[in-house]
């Protein structure tokens, strides 16, 4: 018996349009008219998505640190009204800022326990957030909403405490006072400093049976630039007999034998910390899955051997390094702070500004992958060297008291608008900006005594300025040429991101680049440029109102 061929069911155009309009778009996306296999896979994926859902916990487990979200990026944000800038200028005490090179150390009111930041994200409050009105405001304009976003304003002197000539004469004077107030707020309180000292002693006693020498505290905690949420950097001294100062030629400190010894020592420290309750993850709720708990200890191999451990009671990040002794850069920083005391408040403002945008350092937790489109920000040491170079190049340009505001504006303008970090390097000692155009090549070698110069040859002598410059800064110029050569080699090999990294010459080792790990130079310059524009606009608005303009 012959069967008649199947006739496809025909629907009228009106019914077809009605069916398409009533069917949900998700069903159309799951149907592939030309492939049955793709249709089945799409339906299976849709079914799995309906069965397995990601449930978010209402309370963050200990060890999870969420980033700070600027107010302008939060839901329901309303920009402040221009009426907040119409308050009359307040007064400032005479001893709040005696001159540009001193920072306040007395008359400090202790913060309450609720004001002490529990993590880096909570303590990182922006000096100037993008999208806000300029951060030039009066004391009389303070309200609870302002103090919640700018808690350092409570460290400004009030109007009742100031009399006589101690008045905010201009916007720069007030910005100077606000920079000092922010520096005062971000510094560790005496209670926090006592906690750091006690924690350092506990770490030394804990590792007494593991390390050959007691760990040494270095970094910002040693130089005095530490903020309330700064990390604790410990150095584990490891002697290297082959690198004795008596030897003329010493081997590299990073050779494989030494690296293996450092790795073995850090492994022993890691095991000791994992057996300590203060470095173990604890949660009152039972685990839902069989996955292991969040790891508070991680040994990083990316940029040198660094052991990172999160101290659970305080939330501070501890970093352990191995080396022969305290880095020479630490002594340089201490000397720079004595020569330019204004570096400390300027560094606090610049770091807080970048930290609010997530542009300081790398991710502290190595077990968390870096999101696409993000990278390592500028290191605190490189940022400080940018400030040192700026201070040296502008030595004597800001005389008199209350000039921190002018210095900060000039710093933002220089590194945000005038210098291109992608093509220009920054040298600290001697201070200069170097690139392929202004870095002279090495002079030709002197003629050999065995072969006197030919009578017919009359080479053109090099300019005297070039010879003197090379003789005075020979070692620094060799290092700068080496750093520029590294960028040229990366460009030749097509490694474009490496050519656009920050370049800051290490004053203790001219061949070392302190900014090599910074891959977000464009974002850093954009933040500096935006902050300068907003602060400049706020200062101009302040000056216009003082002169009676625009009223």
Automatic annotation (TrEMBL):
Residue ranges, compositional bias (Polar residues): 18-36, 94-103
GO molecular function (one): poly(A) RNA polymerase activity
Top-rank lineage group of the source organism: Eukaryota
Residues in coiled coil: none
Any one GO biological process: RNA 3'-end processing
Compositional bias (Pro residues): 439-452
Annotated region described as Disordered, given as residue ranges: 1-36, 53-144, 238-258, 430-467
Composition-biased stretches (Basic and acidic residues): 238-249
Gene Ontology cellular component terms for the protein in this record: nucleolus; TRAMP complex
InterPro entries found in the cross-reference section: NT_sf, Trf4-like
Bias (Low complexity) ranges: 453-466
Protein name (Swiss-Prot/TrEMBL): Polynucleotide adenylyltransferase
Protein's organism: Penicillium diatomitis
């Amino acid at each position: 018996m012959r069967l008649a061929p199947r006739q496809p069911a025909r629907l009228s155009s009106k019914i077809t349009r009605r069916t398409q309009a009533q069917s949900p778009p998700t069903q159309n996306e799951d149907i592939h008219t030309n492939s049955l296999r793709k249709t089945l896979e799409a339906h299976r994926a849709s079914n799995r998505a309906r069965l397995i859902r990601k449930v978010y916990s209402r309370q963050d487990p200990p060890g999870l640190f969420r980033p700070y979200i600027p107010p302008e990026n939060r839901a329901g944000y309303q920009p402040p009204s221009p009426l907040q800038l119409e308050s009359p200028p307040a007064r400032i005490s005479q001893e709040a800022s005696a001159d540009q090179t001193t920072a306040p150390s007395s008359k400090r009111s202790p913060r309450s326990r609720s004001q002490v930041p529990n993590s880096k994200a909570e303590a990182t409050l922006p000096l100037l957030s993008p999208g806000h009105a300029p951060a030039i405001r009066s004391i009389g304009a303070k309200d609870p909403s302002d103090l919640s976003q700018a808690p350092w304003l409570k460290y400004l002197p009030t109007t009742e405490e100031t009399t006589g000539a101690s008045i905010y004469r201009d916007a720069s004077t007030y910005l100077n006072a606000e920079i000092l107030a922010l520096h005062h707020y971000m510094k560790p309180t005496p209670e926090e400093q006592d906690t750091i000292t006690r924690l350092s002693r506990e770490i030394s006693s804990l590792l007494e049976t593991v390390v050959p020498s007691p760990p040494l505290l270095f970094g910002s905690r040693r130089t005095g630039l530490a903020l309330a949420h700064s990390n604790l950097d410990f150095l584990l001294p490891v002697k290297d007999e082959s690198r004795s100062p008596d030897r003329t030629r010493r081997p590299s400190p990073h050779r494989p034998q030494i690296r293996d010894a450092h790795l073995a020592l850090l492994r022993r420290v890691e095991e000791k910390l994992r057996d300590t309750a203060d470095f173990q993850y604890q949660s009152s709720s039972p685990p839902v899955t069989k996955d292991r708990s969040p790891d508070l200890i991680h040994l990083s191999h990316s940029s040198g051997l660094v052991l990172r451990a999160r101290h659970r009671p305080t939330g501070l990040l501890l970093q352990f390094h191995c080396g022969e002794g305290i880095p020479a850069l630490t002594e340089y920083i201490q000397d720079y702070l004595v020569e330019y005391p204004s570096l400390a408040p300027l560094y606090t403002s610049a770091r807080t500004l970048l930290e609010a945008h997530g542009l300081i350092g790398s991710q502290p937790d190595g077990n968390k992958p870096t999101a696409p489109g993000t990278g390592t920000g500028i290191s605190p040491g490189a940022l400080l060297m940018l400030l040192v170079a700026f201070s040296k190049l502008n030595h004597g340009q800001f005389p008199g008291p209350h000039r921190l505001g002018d210095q900060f504006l000039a710093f933002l303008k220089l590194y945000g608008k005038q210098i291109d970090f992608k093509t220009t390097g920054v040298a600290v000692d001697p201070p200069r900006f170097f690139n392929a155009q202004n870095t002279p090549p090495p002079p030709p070698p002197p003629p050999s005594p065995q072969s006197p110069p030919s009578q017919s040859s009359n080479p053109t002598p090099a300019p005297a300025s070039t010879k003197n410059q090379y003789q005075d800064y020979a070692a620094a110029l060799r290092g700068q040429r080496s750093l520029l050569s590294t960028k040229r080699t990366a460009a030749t090999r097509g490694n474009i991101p490496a050519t656009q990294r920050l370049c800051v010459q290490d004053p203790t080792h001219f061949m070392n680049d302190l900014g090599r790990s910074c891959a977000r130079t464009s974002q850093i310059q954009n933040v500096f440029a935006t902050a300068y524009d907003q602060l400049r606009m706020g200062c101009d608005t302040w000056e216009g109102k003082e002169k009676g303009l625009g009223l």
